[in-house]
Amino acid sequence: MRSYNKEEKRRLKEIDEQLTAEMKKMQATVLKKYHRERDDDDLSISSLHGTIGGKNNTYVDSVNMQFSDPNDFKAKWIRGFRNYVENRYSPLKKLMKDETFRNYTLKFLERNFYRNLKERTRVKPNENLWSLWFGGGKFIWGLVIAPTFRDKIWTNDVSEIRRAEYMYWTVGHVLNTGLVDPENNELVKFKDIDELLRFYKNILKRVSNSQYEKSIFDFYVEYLENSDDILSEPFLIPEFRYEGLEVDHKYRLDFTILNSHTMELIGFELSPHSSHMSVTKIKDRKQVEVNAELSKKWNKEMQKRNDYFEEFAITTVTFSDDNLNDIKKCFTIMKKYLSARPKEKINLANEIAELDNL
Questions:
Q1: What's the whole-model pTM score?
Q2: Residue 128 carries which DSSP code?
Q3: Is the pLDDT of residue 346 over 70?
Q4: Distance (Å, rounded) from C-alpha 341 to C-alpha 260?
């Protein structure tokens, strides 16, 4: 896993500083409540934080568990905490029912989540996908978690990234933030689902020159139209660009699903032999030359898959000629990844409400 770059470090530092400042406003009050419950003279912040965070791995197995976002981490922590203290004494048992103390604890946990982002998300590397770019030629679009235009570049507003109510990379995400138009440096917004679906079919679909891709666009729109919860559906990203806004980009994936419900990151390549492994003027060339060119093409295709996995943790599924003979069956496979959901999604609000039953 690569290390954070300068911009990513700056973003995480801002998040940390903001949460710390919010915690400090409550600190005096929280310490008094903590002191009364503990009935000792230790009013130190380190004692308080040790009590809150000292059993992270007991409550949620924070070393091995994967969390999709800060709320997921907090919800699972609270459920684990409730289960642990149900028949045990803990100074937090009563304190967590107090609104101020609880809010302080939730901010502490959120800060802990971002301080250990890679370990908490266990997606390699999740922060690479805070801003992603897709499309071909001049028709490039950006999907950013909390888009803002700063210092002549599109980046994330760190004060909003952690407050996002929508799940990352979903239809709801696109409706909330819009898509970045980097040529005009503006956000293209959609007033409703119908407008977004028209954009998907009338703009994104028409850019493609592949009959197979056009069919996938149509199947996806039909899938969304039949969804019971369209806002939570993963946005099917066409032509995800490996090197973002670079004009001479290295690779594009035909379609990509970033499923924030399961944290599965899957790319799809529609790879007919005619466009990916063909050799021109084969009658005029020796077999060794043909083999060498095929080997070069094969290596490039495999390196592309390896690079996407290394940089974004995206695994690639390839549909070759035999698969493409039944394009509807190809989409049925894609639909499994679109519709995948965890067996149980823990809700933060419900878990907080249950604290009163301790």
A1: 0.65
A2: G
A3: yes
A4: 9
